[in-house]
Amino acid sequence: MYYERHFWGMHFFWWLFWIVMIIWIFATPYDIPRRINRKQNPLSILKKRLAKGEITSEEYNEKKKILEDKE
Questions:
Q1: What is the rounded CA–CA span in Å between residue 17 and residue 52?
Q2: pTM higher than 0.85, yes or no?
């Protein structure tokens, strides 16, 4: 008898909690910080650096030419 009441008490809510947490962890799209995204190629990274102002347009064109020559 004790076990039946225990199952429908907090025990049930813990199972529900962990099931919801596992679904949430795998269903939520997120990027891990400092991890290179697999969708990015060197040219897209170069474009982002130009857009952020980290490199000039001359540097962008030079590096783009180098990347295109390697392909």
A1: 42
A2: no
